[in-house]
Every structure is written in C-alpha cells, then in structure tokens.
Amino acid sequence: MTDQPVRPAPSGTAAPPATTGAPAPAPVPAPGPARLPDARPPLTASPASRSHAVSNRVRVWAYRGVAVLLAAALAIGLTLALQSKPVPVELATVERGPLRVTVDEDGRTRVKDRYTVSAPLAGSVGRLWLHAGDSVKRGDVLARILPLATPLLDPRARAEAEARVAGADAARRQAEAGAARAEAAAAYAVREAARERTLFSQGATSRQLLDQAELAERSRAEEATSARFGVRVAQYELEVARAALRRLSTGGAEQLEVRSPVDGVVLRIMQESEGPVPAGGPLLELGDPAALEIVVDVLTSDAVGITPGASVSIERWGGDSALRGHVRTVEPSAFTRLSALGVEEQRVNVLVDLDQPHARWAALGDGFRVEARILVWQADSVLQAPAGAIFRQGQGWAAYRVEEGRARLRPVRIGRQTGARVQILDGLAPGDQVVVYPGDLVTDGREVRAREGT
Q1: Of 31, 243, 276, 432, which has the highest C-beta tally within 10 A?
Q2: How many alpha carbons lie under 13 Å from residue 120 in its C-beta half-sphere?
Q3: CB atoms within 10 A of CB 215
Q4: What is the DSSP string of 210-258?
Q5: How many CB atoms are located within 10 Å of the residue 410 CB?
Q6: 377-411, pLDDT tens digit by residue?
Q7: CB-based contact 323:361 (threshold 8 Å)
Q8: Which residues of the chain have a pLDDT value below 50?
Q9: Beta carbons of 101 and 422 less than 8 angstroms apart
C-alpha cells in the first residue's frame, strides 16, 4: 500500500478526516434553496408542432366535406325516390248537372207593422196592467195619463186662458165668414162658366174667354174647399183653448185614456211603472206576430245580383225543415258595418216574405235569428267541377287534368261559382279527371294516383 497525497478541501467546507487504506467519500454539497424546473412553454413552436396543427385542420375540413357530400347525396336520393313514385291525390270528375248560386247570410225576423204608442201630452202615467205577449183589440185602453200637479193659480193666468178662448172663437167666426164668401164666389164662377159655354156653342164668344171662365170656376172651387178646412182648424183651436181653461178651472182632475190604434199583441213595454212622461214619450210597442218579415243584410256587391221575387230558403231557424220565402225588396240605401276581422263593409238590407202559412212557423217571434239562402242564378245542365280543383294562374284560372296517369296543367275559363262548385266555360270536357286541392308535389307532368278511399 502506498501513501496517497491528501488534497486540501475547498473553502467553506470541512475537510474530511484522513483515512488510510480506503477511498475518500464523495463531497456533499452545501444546503441551499431548491430550484424547480421551468414549466413555461417555449416562445416559438417547433416545426414539428406546426405541421401537426396543419394536419389537424386538414383532417377537420376533410370530415366536413365528406358530411356535406353525404347530405347532398341523401337529398338527391330522396328526391329521386319521391319522383319515382306516383303522388297520391284526390280526384274528381268534371260533369254536367244542375247548379244553384246563392247568397248565404244571417238574418233576423221582424214584425212588419210595428206601432209605438206614445204619450200624446206630458203628464203622469199610471202603472200599466199589460205585459209583453198580451193581445189587445182596436180601441182598448192601454194606459191612463193624469195631469201633472197644477201650478198655483193667479188672476193673470186665468185671464190669459179666457182671452185665448175668446180669440179662438173670433178666429172661428172669421173663418166661417171667409168660407161663406168663398162659397159665393165659387157659385158665381160656376154661373159665368155656364154662360160662356152657351155663348161659345152659339159662336158668340172666343175660346180664350171660355178657358178663362173655366179656370176661374176651378180656382173658386178650390178656394171654397180651403176656406172650409180653415173653419175646421179654427174650431179645433177653440176646443184646445176651452180645454186649457177647463183644466185651470177644475184643477186638472180629468184624465186621458190612451187607446190601441190596431188589433195586435204587446211586443214590448217601455214605461211599466207609474211616473211622469214627456209629450211623445214611448209607452209600449204593438204589432202582429203573424205578419213577420225577415231582414237579411248582405254585401252590396252581392245585392247587385238579387232581384225582387227571388226564391229564398230559410234554414237553421229551429224547425225540422227549411222554410220557403221570396225577396220582397232590396233597400236602396246601404250602411257601413265592421266585420269580425275589423274591416269596414258596405252592406244593404234585403227584406224577405215567408210563403208558407203561419201555422208552419208559428214558433217564430220578433227578432229571432235565421240563416237565409237567396237564389241568385240557377241552371239545370251546367258543366262544372269542384271548386278545390280550380286555382289562380297569373291573371286567369287553371286546373290539373289527369292524362294517362300524369297531371297536366290546363288553363280554364270559369263562369258562375259557389262555395263548392264552379261552372266551366272552356278548358275541360265532361268526364275529365281533375286533381282536387293539388299540393306542392303536384307539377305539370308528374305521375299521380288516386288516394285510397277517394
């Protein structure tokens, strides 16, 4: 064994003890702060990472392109599959038959002759003993009107009433005198006209003088008639003045009876309880329910084709079958009404009379709702097709006619039409098969087949 030289220890560390015959242990570093590895990514990507990102984008675009191609192929396949199969449609046959064009509108019943009984003068009406539906005869007492409370009397009011009576009496005498004068003038004119006729027949006078005499005769006769009416007016005024004086004298104890003007039924009571009413105030309504008419308001564009005497079918009135009627008149004046959609419409009333006896529709009353079908046009043999088979094409009309299993677009010319049928004037022939309510799948030349169950 040879001696090894001993190396001095670095500064700051303790020198290991010298040993002989054994290797020296590795030096232990001095303790210090621990250092962590740097976790930040490099500021610039490497060429390998850039190529990897590019390949990912290429792969994504490739997947997307494949998906688009698959979707397009699927759409084309579906289109071809649908076009290869006949489209199920509803078919109808163009044929000849009767056609009726009607105007269908709601209407209401109304009593033809309605009488509103009003108070002839202001007063206090007693409680009415009548009720709606009661029958009355002409001349029956309907109500009694008592005078209102008389105001305090004074000499001035009484003197004025007496003066009005005296003035009315003087006016009556004056009118009688005027009537006597007019009668005398008329008699003289008659004699003059007779004298001129005699002279004219003998050739002693001219035609002009005869015409003047006859004109004077007619004029004096009319003046005498007017004078007689003047006497009657003066007499009525005298009676009114005397009645006012009697009311002041007696304190208003009399009463006025309001009588029925016609035979009928009480339709409505306006003033049932006792109380004051003004002059002309309505008391009740009278009418005859057996004399009903139906009022149907229609569009003015439809009313142009409605004529008096047109047949009318009254439906949904509550009976077992429809009633027959006819148009009596179309009112000359229209009115504006808002529709259910808020659109202003010009409408006019059409008055309809019932043709069947009253026993058939006795259950109908005033103001009942009905549905009316007014006949505008009809024919026994008309070439027609379902309304659902005709549709607009540009400025005209068209239909799909089935020829050898395929739909062929054909322009048509139409005439009268209803909600269900259309008159065909040109473009289709009897026996043709047409597509009813064609959808978007039906095109010119497309193969079609009848839908099951049609």
Answers
A1: 432
A2: 11
A3: 12
A4: HHHHHHHHHHHHHHHHHHHHHHHHHHHHHHHHHHHHHHHHHTS---EEE
A5: 17
A6: 999 999 999 999 999 998 999 999 999 889 999 99
A7: yes
A8: 1-26, 28-30, 32-39, 43, 252
A9: no
Q: CA 327 to CA 349: how far, in whole Å?
A: 11
C-alpha to C-alpha distance for 219 and 195, rounded to whole angstroms: 17
Predicted confidence (pLDDT) per residue in 13-61, tens digit = 444 444 444 444 445 444 544 444 444 555 455 566 666 666 777 777 7
Residue 96 has a CB neighbour count (10 Å cut-off) of 14
Both tokens of 431, joined, read 């026996």
Pairing between β-strand 123-125 and β-strand 323-330 as defined by DSSP bridges: unpaired
CA torsion through residues 438, 441, 444, 445, sign: negative
Q: Using an 8 Å Cβ cutoff, are 395 and 426 in contact?
A: no
CB 297 within 8 A of CB 319: no
What span, in angstroms and rounded, lies between the C-alpha atoms of 151 and 147?
11
Assign residue 105 a region (left: φ > 0; alpha: ψ between -120 and 50; beta: otherwise). beta
Both tokens of residue 253?
Answer: 């104890």
Q: Which amino acid is at 187?
A: A
CA distance 349 to 151: 50
